[in-house]
Specification:
Blueprint lengths: L24 E2 L4 H5 L10 E7 L12 H10 L1 E7 L6 H10 L5 E3 L4 H6 L7 H7 L1 H6 L19 E2 L15 E4 H6 L8 H14 L2 E2 L2 E2 L1 E3 L7 H12 L9 E3 L6 E3 L4 H15 L12 H9 L3 E4 L3 H13 L7 E4 L21 E4 L6 H11 L2 H9 L7 E3 L2 E3 L2 H9 L1 H8 L28 H7 L2 H9 L33 H21 L6 H14 L2 H20 L5
Parallel strand pairs: 2-3, 2-4, 9-12
Antiparallel strand pairs: 1-2, 4-14, 5-14, 6-12, 6-13, 7-8, 10-11, 15-16
């Protein structure tokens, strides 16, 4: 069951199990003198230990420009450690078992384990007393910070989504290299058949790229990345709403593992066809993430089914080498014109967030740190950088100099590492793209003028050919969809004990085994393997799990909307 109240953590510490320090160390500071400071003006030095469930290869121990400014303004230094490739699952399970926690944590989907272990502080009172900036940003969405209907504590502050977010561009979908689009005369790419035809025609003309075999389509099936490039696309191409492993029937809130939708079978059948035609790279299901990125950075991969954050490091390597034509355009590809790509469907304010643990000796100072980063000043710093270094103010308008923009676009890894821009997104709430501050400037740098200015000439040429200004123009608009009443289901907490987790893991093991098996089979065997896959899911308890998940979704809709859901 989901706990109504966190349990007292009575497990003995295993100090040698984790490298993170559980307590806060400070100099010239103690919790007594900060407790009386509700303005956040105390800037005496203090260090918080932190663990982030996402990788952050550009982290520079706050020695970047933004990090130094944050420390100067708040006195806070983060002794931070970030997970590498596993989404924090193993480390957080170990924390929950050992009782050894960092002061602050970004736990992603593993938050429930820490709540059940009694590791997370209810932030409700701290926010009310010491976080005026945070309360202002989240004023319309306070209910969306509550843990559940049963337990309305605030254990996590959502920081990976922006309030009042508008979308001016799209960075996902199905990707095709710009060189392919240009040579083929910028063909229409709206269906998997059109996507396939473009790749097939180009590779026939160019079987090699820089002396290596050209790869028409590449997937990344290394661990959880398989969801991003392999299985999620079955839902996306058939009108599914991007709810992770589940499909939610909008009218009834009934849920099922999305693989059970008959139309999705046809998507995997198409991947099977691509493999048997020699268009899907044969190593997609055996190579590791770094091998996948290496192939992309070689420039010989024509097509992807992903999002920029997943393959961006490899694409940036191409841009840094001056090979802009090897980067990718984004298309709303579906299984047929009867389906609509819902990439731009709004979820409202919901998502992974930051938490303070019971190990933190000064939670007041910690919440004030998060609050300062949520202020107007903190948001501008995190998004734009330091005035006079990463941007200037000209006639009251924030302007990014051309040389800085070029560094950001063409050498993003080094740019982020040295400037700190985009490295601190998860440490405070924020307004989304398209929201302006009191000076009339946007909080973020993602607005049309900046987005268009960041495009390469090859990208601008492609967009002009499609009569578009950004890739968003090719996708169904946000106002064509209702806002999801259940928000982001990847952020919904599920039971950490009982049958649910056991059944879920069994179904995941089956998915990771049977989906590749079906894709790599002969066409004659595909139906037999896929149908057996669905039967196997039910045999391990999928229907029971789906029923439990349905009730969680209904409760979440009730919490978010106030509806009485039966």
């Amino acid at each position: 069951m989901i706990q109504k109240l966190p349990k007292t953590c009575g497990i003995a510490l295993l100090a040698s199990a984790l490298l993170l320090s559980a307590g806060c160390s400070s100099s010239k500071n103690n919790s007594a003198n900060t407790a009386n400071d509700s303005t956040g003006s105390d800037t005496s030095p203090i260090t918080f230990s932190f663990f982030g469930a996402d990788a952050n290869p550009n982290w520079n121990k706050m020695q970047d420009d933004v990090g130094k400014e944050i420390t100067a303004k708040t006195g806070v230094t983060l002794n931070a450690e970030f997970d590498v490739g596993n989404g924090g699952g193993d480390r957080i399970s170990l924390m929950a078992a050992s009782g050894d926690f960092p002061d602050i944590i970004y736990a992603k989907g593993e938050l429930g384990k820490l709540v059940d272990a009694g590791a997370i502080i209810d932030l409700t009172d701290l926010i009310d007393k010491y976080a005026p900036h945070l309360k202002k940003v989240m004023s319309k969405d306070m209910n969306r910070m509550k843990y559940s209907n049963e337990n309305q504590a605030i254990y996590s502050i959502p920081t990976n989504t922006g309030v009042d977010q508008q979308y001016f561009d799209v960075t996902g979908g199905f990707e095709v290299q710009l060189r392919v689009l240009k040579e083929l005369g910028y063909p229409e790419i709206k269906t998997v058949q059109q996507f396939e035809s473009a790749l097939k025609e180009y590779v026939a003309k160019h079987p090699t790229t820089d002396g290596q075999p050209t790869i028409p389509l590449l997937l990344n099936a290394d661990g959880w990345k398989s969801m991003i490039t392999v299985t999620n696309q079955a839902a996306a191409t058939t009108g599914g709403a991007g709810d992770g492993e589940y499909y939610v029937v909008p009218e009834t809130y009934q849920t099922m593992l999305h693989y059970k939708r008959p139309e999705e079978k046809d998507y995997f059948r198409w991947l099977n066809h691509m493999y048997n035609e020699g268009l899907l790279d044969k190593d997609s299901f055996v190579e590791k993430d770094d091998q996948y990125k290496s192939k992309i950075s070689s420039g010989r991969v024509l097509g992807l089914t992903s999002v920029e954050w997943e393959y961006g490091d490899a694409e940036n390597a191409l841009k840094s080498a001056g090979k802009d034509e090897y980067s990718y355009g984004h298309f709303p590809v579906t299984m047929g014109e009867q389906y609509k790509d819902n990439t731009l469907q709004a979820i409202g304010v919901d998502g992974y967030g930051i938490s303070i643990t019971t190990a933190c000796k000064d939670p007041v100072r910690a919440i004030k740190f998060i609050d300062w980063l949520s202020s107007n000043e903190g948001q501008v710093l995190r998004n734009w950088g330091v005035e006079g270094k990463q941007y200037n103010i000209e006639n009251g308008v924030r302007v990014i100099p051309d040389e800085i923009r070029n560094q950001k676009v063409n050498d993003s890894a080094n740019f982020g590492k040295h400037t700190g821009i985009d490295l601190y997104t998860i440490f405070g709430v924020r307004y989304g793209d398209g929201v302006k501050d009191s000076t009339g400037n946007y909080y973020t740098t993602n607005f049309p003028e900046q987005i268009i200015a960041s495009y390469s000439d090859a990208e601008k040429e492609a967009l002009a050919a499609y009569k578009a200004t950004t890739w968003k123009d090719l996708f169904p608009a946000e106002d064509e969809f209702p806002v999801k009443e259940w928000g982001a289901l990847y952020n919904m907490q599920v039971p950490t004990d009982g049958d649910y987790q056991v059944i879920y893991q069994k179904t995941q093991d089956i998915v990771h085994k049977r989906i590749p098996e079906a894709i790599l089979s002969s066409p004659a065997d595909f139906d037999k393997i896929y149908d057996a896959f669905l039967d196997e899911l039910n045999k391990v308890g999928a229907e029971k799990m789906e029923k439990e998940y349905t009730e969680l979704v209904k409760a979440r809709v009730s919490l978010f909307t106030g509806k009485d859901i039966k």
